[in-house]
Amino acid sequence: MATHDGAAAGRPGRPGAVPARARAALDALEHLVGGMGTGLLALLATLWLALTAVACLAGVGLSLLPSALHAVRAVADRERARLSRWGPEIIGPAEPPAGLRAALADRAVRREARWVCTHALFGLLLGLIGATLPLNAAHDITFPLYWRLLPESESTAALGWWTVRDWPGALSVTLFGVLFVAVIVLCAPALARLQAWPGRRLLGPDPGTDLVLRVAELTATRAAALDAHATELRRVERALHDGTQNRIVAVTVLLGAARRALARNPAEADAVLERAQEAAEQALAELRAVVRSILPPVLADRSLPDALTALAADCPVPCRVDTDVPGRCAASVEATAYFVVAEALSNIAKHSGARDAGVVVRRLGDRLHVEIHDDGRGGADERNGSGLTGIRRRTEAHDGTLELASPPGGPTTLKVTLPCGS
User: Fold this and answer.
1) What number of other Cβ atoms are within 10 A of residue 335's Cβ?
2) What is the 8-class DSSP label of residue 374?
3) 8 A C-beta contact, residue 7 and residue 321
C-alpha cells in the first residue's frame, strides 16, 4: 500500500505547517545541545590556551604551546564534523606547519584560535539556553500535577518569579510553559543558526582554497553527469534495439507473409494478420515503457509524490510512501529522485528478500532528502553491480550526496540528498 501527503504539506496555513515547524524546532534543539558539547570542549581548550599564554610570558610555556594548538585543532575538527552533518560540508585545512613559529603564523591556526574562544563563550551560552528551554517548558506545563507536593518555598515557576499558593497561580505557571514552547518553536532555529555561524565563518578553508576545491568538485560532477547521460543513452538504445526494433521487424515479416497468403489462402492470411497486430501492440507497449523510463508522464503532469506513489504501487514488495514536498523542484532534480527510488525499489524486489519497504521524501530548505529502507537481508554493496553505482553517479551529477547503510542481516537504508534548484 502506498500513501503520501500532498505537495502542499508544510505550507503556511496548511495542516502540515505545524509538524514541519515542530521538526525544525526539535532539530534546532539537537543542534544547540550538540553545540553545547563542543562548547564545553572549546572552553577547556581556551583555558589550556590561556594557561599556555601566561606560562609563555613567564618564559616556561613554549613547550606547552604545541599541545595547546593540537587541542584547538581537535576541538575544531569535531565542530567541523558536527556542522557538516547538519548542512554543507566544511573541509578542514591542511596539517599545520611543523615549526612552532610557522604554526603561529599560519592563518588557519589563528582562525581556529579565534573560533575556539568565541565558541567557548557564545556557543556554550546558546547551547545552555537550548538545553534549559525544553526543561523549563516541561516543568511549567506539568506544574499543576505536582505543585501541592512541593514545599512552599519551592512551589514556583521555572524562573522562580513568585510562589504559588492556589490553583489559579498553578494554572498561570502552565501558561508560562506554553509560552516557553512557543519560544522554542519560533526562536530555536535562529539560535541554532547563530551558534553555527562562527564555525562556518572561521573553520572553513580560505576563499581561494574553497574556490580550487569547488572547481575540482565541479569537474568531477560534470564528468559524472556526462557518464550518467551516456549510460542512459546506452540503456535507451538497448531497449529500442533489443525490444521495440525486433517487434517492428516481426510486424514487417508478418505483414509480408500475410500479403503472400492473401493470394494463396485468405483464411491463413487472417491468422497471420492477427499475429502481426499482436506484435505491433507489444512493440507499442515496449515503446511506451521506454518513454516512461525517460520521464514518467505522471511526474511531468502532476508531482513527484504522485509519481512515487505510482512507482510504489507497482513494486512487488509492499511499500509505503511518506512525502512532504511543498511546491515543485527543478525537473531534473525530480527526475533524478524518481530514478533513485525506481532503481532502489528494483534492487529491493530482486535482491533483498524483504517483506516490507518504505520511501520517505522531505524538502528541508533548499535540499531534497530521499530515504529508501527495507527489512531485507542487507549486505548491499556498490561493487556488485546492483545499480548503486548508477544511483551515485546520477546523485553526484547534481552535487548531491549518497549514504548507504546495509549491514549483513539488514536492514538496508539508502539516503540521497539533492539540491532542489529552482
Assistant:
1) 20
2) E
3) no
Instruction: Give the torsion sign (CA, 159, 161, 163, 167).
Output: negative
Helices (H), ranges, 240-303: 245-264, 266-294, 297-301
Tens-place pLDDT, residues 317-376: 899 999 888 888 877 788 888 888 888 888 888 888 888 899 999 988 888 899 999 988
Amino acid at 245: Q
DSSP 10: T
Q: N- to C-terminal Cα distance for the chain?
A: 31
User: Pairing between strand 401-405 and 367-374?
Assistant: unpaired
Does residue 385 contact residue 231 with C-beta atoms inside 8 Å? no
The DSSP secondary-structure symbol of 412 reads E
163-183 tens-digit pLDDT? 777 888 788 888 888 888 888
Q: Residue 336 and residue 348: Cα distance in Å, rounded?
A: 18
Whether the Cβ atoms of residue 220 and residue 56 lie closer than 8 Å to each other: no
- C-alpha pair distances (Å), 53 with each of 56, 71, 116, 288, 365: 5, 14, 15, 73, 43
- Checking DSSP bridges between strand 412-419 and strand 367-374, what pairing results, if any? antiparallel
- Which grid cell is 33? 545541545
List strands edge to edge, sheet with 401-405.
319-324, 357-364, 367-374, 412-419, 401-405
Beta bridge partners of residue 99, listed in sequence order: none
CA 339 – CA 329 distance, rounded (Å):
15
Provide the sign of the torsion angle of the four alpha carbons 160, 165, 167, 169, taken in this order.
negative
**Secondary structure (3-state) at 313:** helix
Backbone angles phi, psi at 37, to 5 degrees: -60, -50
CB 31 within 8 A of CB 196: yes
Total-model pTM: 0.48
